[in-house]
Amino acid sequence: MTYSAHGYDPDQDQLTWTWAVGQPPCPDPADPSRWPITSAQPSTLASPTSYQISPVLTAQCVWVFATDRYGAVAADNAPLAPADNPPQPVIRVVSPAPADSYPAYSMFQLSGATSSDADGDPLVNAWRIDQAPLGSTAALVPCPTVTDPTLQCLNVLVSGQYVVALTVDDGSTTTTASMTLNVLPDQPPCITMTTPMYGGALLKDDPTAPNPIMVNMVTDDGDPFPNPASPLQTVKFTWFKGKNDRGNLQYVDNGSFSMLNLVPTDYQPGDVANVRLEVHDRSTAVIDAILLGCGDADFCPITPGSTCLVRVSWRIEMDL
Predict the structure, then answer these.
(1) Would you say residue 48 has pLDDT above 80?
(2) Sign of the Cα pseudo-torsion (220, 225, 227, 232, in order)
(3) Buried b (16+ CB within 10 A) or exposed e, 143-167
(4) Do 45 and 5 contact (CB within 8 A), yes or no?
(5) Distance between alpha carbon 175 and the CA centroid of its chain, in Å?
(6) Contact predicate 155/144, CB 8 Å
(7) Domain ranges of the chain
(8) The CATH number of 92-183 is which of 2.60.40.10, 2.30.130.10, 1.20.58.220, 3.30.1330.50?
(9) Fold assignment, 190-318
(10) Which residues pair with 169 in a beta bridge?
(11) Tell me, what's the pLDDT at 41?
């Protein structure tokens, strides 16, 4: 804090200014017997009429003295009562990108690094979840592989509203701030790219060296494919195949793989390979209901008129 003094001399004498700090309460400055004996340290400011006092933890009385050329002195004082400013907690979403709502299965990184204290006091953070959807077991934990102690991670598996609170303590005062995170319901996956591209047209292939059928991309709010951030957390693939429209398609036991190899010895020239793919995310009941609803149809749109599919099919004629 910086104090400034102003004064004049009736005889136009040049005044010499000095400062002092005494014990509270401040007495009547007109009584010289109450003046403090110890002078304050010289001000670090350029102006002699200004004094910068260091941060203090207890109440004090700041004095200023004006002396003319004959040694006559006048004094004034002002009380200094330091106040502890409360800390200001701030919660910030580091990832995913801040939004009004977030997809299901979001992994949140929350930061309290921008919390502050006007007095420069060191802060201690305490995190908690004040509200979570019924059935949620989500917890705030230190983020793995991250050394920043102000970061907390929250992995949500249940949709709904989460209220996260951060309390900061400056040693004498605590203040709390909260943030609401709205997590949307799980959305079914969508097959978006395959090789060859799915469709109703009859494809051609060589029965002696048939090309594999591959899934290139599946979008999903929790389990996309591919998933660079978590390669093992992707949709599951279920394949079926048959030949020449002979009865129902048979399940192929490689449901966890994104590629189906057609075996050359299974086909002769003129055969037609029938292949079907279904994708499942972790919300299996929703996908099972969609697949049940569309029966044996080659394509299962998620909603009427939608181009987003959870089942696709191919018909491939084996021709040399």
Answers:
(1) no
(2) positive
(3) beeeeeebbbbbebbbbbebebbbb
(4) no
(5) 21
(6) no
(7) 2-80, 92-183, 190-318
(8) 2.60.40.10
(9) Immunoglobulin-like (2.60.40)
(10) 124, 174
(11) 57
Residue 224 pLDDT exceeds 90: yes
Residue that wins the pLDDT comparison between 113 and 119: 113
d(CA 86, CA 168): 9
In the structure, what pLDDT confidence band is assigned to residue 82 with cuts at 50, 70 and 90?
A: confident
Locus of tokens 């009380």 = 79
Query: pLDDT digits over 305-314, tens only?
Result: 888 899 999 9
Question: If we measure between CA atoms, which residue out of 3, 2, 73, 90 comes closest to residue 36?
Answer: 73
For residue 23, what are its two tokens?
Answer: 């014990």
User: Cβ(78)–Cβ(26) under 8 Å?
Assistant: yes
List strands edge to edge, sheet with 160-169: 124-131, 160-169, 174-183
Residues of the chain with pLDDT > 70: what percent? 95
Is the confidence at residue 42, as pLDDT, over 60? Answer: no
| The predicted structure's pLDDT at residue 39 | 62
- pTM (predicted TM-score): 0.63
